[in-house]
Each structure stands twice: as C-alpha cells, then as structure tokens.
Specification:
Blueprint lengths: L6 H102 L4 E9 L2 E8 L2 H13 L3 E11 L7 E9 L7 H4 L1
C-alpha cells in the first residue's frame, strides 16, 4: 500500500484556514468600525440638529418673553389709563355738586347767620361764621339736617366775644351727601 503523507496538505489547509479566519476577523472588525463610525456620525448629526432646534426655541422664547413684557407694560398702562378715566369721570359727575352745595348752603342759612369761611376736606365740610344768637346756629343745624346735600351737623365751638356787635362766632362740621341726579343713573 502506498503511503501518502498528508501532513503538508494539513499544514497548508491549516494555514489557509488561519488566513481565512484572519481575513473574516479583519472584515468583521472593519464592518464593526464602519457601523460604529456611521452610528457616531448619525448621533453627532442628531445632536447638532437638536442643538439647532434648541437654539431656535431659545430665540423664539426670548421673542415671546419680549412680547409678554410688552403686553404686561401695555396692560399696566391700560390700568393706569382706566384709573385716570375713572378719576376724570368722577370729577365730571361731581362738577354740579359744588353748585348744588353752595346753593344749598345759601338756602340753609337762616337770617342773622353769616359764614366767614367754608372749607371742604373730602366729603367733610367745615363752616365758620358769625350768628346773632345761638338759636340761629341751632336753626342752621336743623336746616342742614333737613338738606338733601348735607347731613350730620356737628357743632364744635360757639364763642361769644364782648364788644362784638353781631353776636357769637361758631364752627360747625357737616358731611356732604352725593345725591344722584336724573340721568346720572343711566351713565353708570
């Protein structure tokens, strides 16, 4: 029987398999590196895209914040204007009150009573004057109580001075009443 030496063939086959294994390993490592590089590029591009979107959103948020501050400023200005309009409207409504008040003062003064000063602080009136007698001051207080434009008369001082021809000095306080005029209800 002939003898065949298979050792060189086995060595060559082993060498070929090792080369093939090294080639496949290199190809696998190359493919892994390629896939890793592609994933790295895709993730980098996604991160850059997200940064661009974030920058755009920040710009939009800043623009909206500016608009919000403008709106708040306009709202505050609107409130100030409304307050001014209400003050002007209140003053317009109270314009005739002064006329009515002076008219009522003239009607409530009895004979023998003269006013030397009239001072108003908010709705409180301070009336100073001279009366021939304290009964005339009492009549003035009753007339103020009956008035539709004044109420709550409070006498502070009645002073009789010697040598004064007219009589007594007095100081009287009253409260002004705001009476609704016809047609004013429709305006409110």
């Amino acid at each position: 029987m002939p003898r065949i030496n298979l050792l060189p063939w086995r060595a060559a086959e082993r060498k070929r398999r090792q080369q093939q294994f090294a080639l496949w390993t290199m190809m696998a490592v190359g493919a892994a590196l390629l896939v890793t590089g592609l994933i790295w590029l895709a993730v980098g591009q996604a991160i850059e895209s997200q940064r661009d979107r974030n920058a755009l959103l920040k710009k939009e948020i800043e623009a909206l914040d500016k608009q919000i501050t403008e709106i708040l400023g306009l709202e505050a200005q609107r409130q100030r204007m409304r307050a001014r309009m209400e003050v002007i409207e209140k003053l317009q409504r109270s314009r005739p009150e002064v006329v009515h008040l002076f008219d009522q003062l003239a009607k409530t003064l009895p004979d023998g009573v003269y006013l030397t000063s009239v001072k108003q602080t908010d709705k409180r009136l301070e009336l100073k004057g001279v009366a021939q007698s304290s009964t005339r001051v009492s009549a003035l207080m009753r007339n103020i109580d009956d008035s539709e434009w004044m109420e709550n008369p409070e006498l502070e001082v009645v002073e009789t001075k010697k040598g004064q021809a007219l009589g007594s000095d007095f100081t009287l306080f009253a409260t002004q009443v705001g009476v609704q005029l016809p047609g004013e209800e429709a305006q409110q």
